[in-house]
Amino acid sequence: MNTPGRPVGEPTPVHRGRRLRDAVQAGDAAAGDPPEVALQQQLLVTITLLIFPAAFVWGFVYMAFGEPRAGLIPWGYALVSLVGLATARWTGRFGPFRTLQLGMWLVLPFLLQVELGGFVPGSAVGVWAFCAPISALLVASRRTASTLMVVFALLVVVAVLVRPSAATDNALPAWLVTALFGLNLVGTAVVTYRAMVFFIDQKDHAYALLGSERARSERLLLNVLPAPIADRLKRQEPVIADRFETVSVLFADIVGFTPLSVGMSAEDLVAMLDGLFARLDEMTQQRGLEKIRTIGDAYMVAAGVPSPRDDHAPVLVDLGLDMVRAAGDGSAGQPLQLRVGISSGPAVAGVIGRTKFQYDIWGDTVNTASRMESHGVPGRIHVSESTRLLIEDAYVCEARGVIDVKGKGPMRTYLVVGPRRLEP
């Protein structure tokens, strides 16, 4: 957008300080400096542009009231600063400009104070040198700042104790000396305050990023580990392992998945699995159960881990019935059939892995649940004798008789018919 009254194509005026600051920043950005250097550059240029107008005004005042040599010092600073900014812009080098500014901030105020006759006649103009160690903390290093602070303290002692032989007074009227006392203190305070505001802003930003990253890490951790287990991991327990006397484990598998997947594109296949498993995840979380993992098209859930619960078998059967209905309603893109197997009994659960953590569960109960699924019936819940005994008050089961289970031998198993109706 053009400024009203300005010819089209003519650039809108930009504040000189802002243009110079942006120019120097552009030069350093081209050098590929890391973000912290760009922030240091921004602060240094900001402080330079804060001091620049003060230096010009101070020089004009000294010239106007009969102290031309004193006036040349702040004007010289202003000129050298402009040259330094331009040089930094064209060379893209931030280091020399920083060194130049810190050196001038430290030395020139004391030279000006000496020229004006000392601490009192010079209106304590040497206090501006305090900008050097304070700024060095933020734009250089702690070591540099400490060195400049020591030099500043020595210069203060020298300026107070050693009266210059060239002059003990100056041509400035008393009222102006007093006014400059206040202005020097206020000017130094403004620069110091701006530096501290920058520091606080960066600290708050860093804390906000830290909090955001911590929350993100928490979410990622809770995506792979149950909350109680994640807390134990953060406490740096060397081995996280628990034995449970009675839990229930469910395995679900998509019937005919292999031939189905052959005729689908990769995108459609992943979208179908993602849609189905997302619904299963939601149902699992609603019941406070623990999803252990997915293996291909198989889905594994445990109840009673990591926190024991008395209803582990009935709640898992309820989940299994909902899973069968969810798969068959076509919400995953097409109707699917699940084979679901459940078994109950003792198990061991814990965390394995060093770079990728996984909460897993082991034991004969897990193996039996897997066999219940693989020997099951499409669209039905197949349970072991141990699970039937735990759910018989809540669910009607249909006996399958004794079947030969791979790796287990003959076993008496059951199919869940549905919830048992309460007698009126």
Structure commentary:
- By secondary structure, the protein is an alpha+beta fold.
- Strands 1, 2, 3, 4, 5, 6, 7 and 8 form an 8-stranded mixed beta sheet that branches.
- The protein folds into 2 domains: about 200 residues, no CATH class; about 190 residues, Alpha-Beta Plaits.
- About 55% of the residues lie in helices and about 15% in strands.
- The longest helix has about 50 residues.
- It is rod-shaped.
DSSP helical segment count: 13
> What is the distance, rounded to the nearest whole angstrom, between the alpha carbons of the first and last residues?
80 Å
Tell me the overall shape. rod-shaped
| Cα-atom radius of gyration | 39 Å
Blueprint of the fold:
Layout (H helix, E strand, L loop, with lengths): L15 H15 L4 H30 L3 H24 L3 H22 L14 H9 L2 H20 L12 H51 L2 H8 L6 E14 L2 H6 L3 H21 L3 E6 L2 E6 L8 H17 L9 E15 L5 E5 L1 H11 L6 E4 H7 L3 E11 L3 E11 L5
Parallel strand pairs: 4-6
Antiparallel strand pairs: 1-3, 1-4, 2-3, 4-5, 6-8, 7-8
Characteristic key phrases:
single chain; 424 residues; alpha+beta; Alpha-Beta Plaits; eight-stranded mixed beta sheet; 13 helices; 8 strands; 57% helix; rod-shaped; disordered N terminus
